[in-house]
């Protein structure tokens, strides 16, 4: 079983990699919304994006990209209604 390490850094994006492999860290930039309006549960939204992606067979890099995108969508809108129409459009690698 592979263990992943993911470090979300808010507006700085995220770093990720495989536990114990120190020379292959992936830095993923954040997606910036037009306006930051609601940061409540942005981290939970990020983690949900990771989990959703990995459950659906995406690689770690795609999962983190998707999580950054969906967390940005959440931060740029009030509440969670904006996520109902959010589409899973992360490339398969």
TrEMBL record:
Gene3D superfamilies: 3.40.1190.20. SUPFAM superfamilies: Ribokinase-like (SSF53613). Residues 25-79 form the Carbohydrate kinase PfkB domain. InterPro entries: PfkB_dom, Ribokinase-like. Transmembrane segments: none annotated. Pfam families: PfkB (PF00294). This is Carbohydrate kinase PfkB domain-containing protein. It comes from Clavelina lepadiformis. The lineage of its organism: Eukaryota, Metazoa, Chordata, Tunicata, Ascidiacea.
């Amino acid at each position: 079983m592979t263990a992943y390490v993911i470090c979300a850094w808010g507006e700085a994006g995220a770093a990720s990699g495989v536990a114990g492999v120190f020379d292959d860290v992936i830095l993923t930039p954040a997606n910036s919304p037009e306006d930051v309006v609601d940061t409540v549960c942005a981290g939970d939204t990020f983690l949900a994006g990771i989990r959703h992606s990995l459950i659906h067979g995406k690689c770690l890099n795609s999962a983190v990209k998707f999580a950054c995108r969906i967390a940005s969508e959440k931060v740029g809108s009030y509440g969670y209604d904006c996520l109902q129409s959010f589409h899973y459009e992360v490339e398969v690698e």
